[in-house]
Amino acid sequence: MKASPVTVAALARQIAARVAAFDGGHPARVAVDGAPTAGGADLAEAAAGVLRDEGVPALHIAAGMFLRAASLRLERGRTNPDAYYEDWLDLRALTREVLGPAGPGGTGRVLPSLWDPVTDRATRAAYVTVPAHGAVIVSGVFLLGAGLGFDVAVHLMQSDAALTRRLPAELGWTVPAYGRYRDEVMPEYQADVVVRADDPRHPAVVTAL
């Protein structure tokens, strides 16, 4: 495995160039997949900003605003790593409200957020129409290998040591879920762009897996 260091800004430009080259007749649906400690949300927003500067309408959506209601995702307890992996993200809602409308034959009318995990209530966000030459960039965890309809996928890798070191202590219980995802899905082989992000301020693009 070879990893080539790159700045965050240059990485955002690389991702934006790949997205801009997509010509599928509908908005490019992009996954920026990785633990919250890997800097995926910032990278997704940076790539969206580059696209906007180049005249490509781009919308960054946080998958964390498409969680299932607390009564469902916490049914097996508040610190169950298997539930975190299997039950938290509302895959159907993300498909129905974002990836389906942005996909082939869709209306382009997507919902930027659905559920606020802090208030455990619907966000009541307004729909946004993304034109066919635009892009929808979704950042979050466990986005690959679940049958979600992405056209471009970026995976941010972190070692167990880096993940454990960077996670807040109260989220330490989630570490086994990331290990399970890595072992079962092997997301680095599902992605178009793989990035070593042990230190998200100093990423490195991985080639020759």
From TrEMBL:
One of its GO terms (molecular function) is kinase activity. InterPro entries: P-loop_NTPase. It comes from the Bacteria. The keyword Transferase applies. The keyword Kinase applies. Keywords: Kinase, Transferase. This is Uridine kinase.
